[in-house]
Amino acid sequence: RELSAFLERIAADVAPGDHRTATLRIVSDRKIRELNRRFRDQDRPTDVLAFPADPVPSEFLPEEEAEYLGDLVVSADTAARQAQEVGVGLDDEIRVLAVHGYLHLLGYDHEQDRGEMERLERVLRLRHGLLRN
């Protein structure tokens, strides 16, 4: 619930008035590696994956489904290693990864946005007390 509330605060900061929701699932390196291989053709674990919902005109969906943005999957194993490397708690690292993944769900791409996604991530981390570099 706490992570859900956190995602709602991030959503309000990034896209005010956009009330779509996202799910967040915490998995092992083994599971995220399987997902990464299956959906991105990369046979390695990663820290976070974002799966946007298929765009379907909202008039064809029940109201609660029309508000669905997509799924975030975070590897607890990778998050724990990264948290230790940068000296933060696991909960904070998972929040950092959730911010990153949520921006992907909104369509941001760090390879195409010329630093905009990175800038927005830094702003959100500072605003929410996530002081990771």
UniProtKB/TrEMBL annotation:
GO terms for molecular function: endonuclease activity; metal ion binding; metalloendopeptidase activity. Keywords: Endonuclease, Hydrolase, Metal-binding, Nuclease, Zinc. It comes from the Eukaryota. It holds the Pfam family YbeY. SUPFAM superfamilies: Metalloproteases ('zincins'), catalytic domain. Its cofactor is Zn(2+). InterPro entries: MetalPrtase_cat_dom_sf_prd (IPR023091), YbeY (IPR002036), YbeY_CS (IPR020549). One of its GO terms (biological process) is rRNA processing. Belongs to the endoribonuclease YbeY family. This is Endoribonuclease YbeY. It comes from Geodia barretti (Barrett's horny sponge).
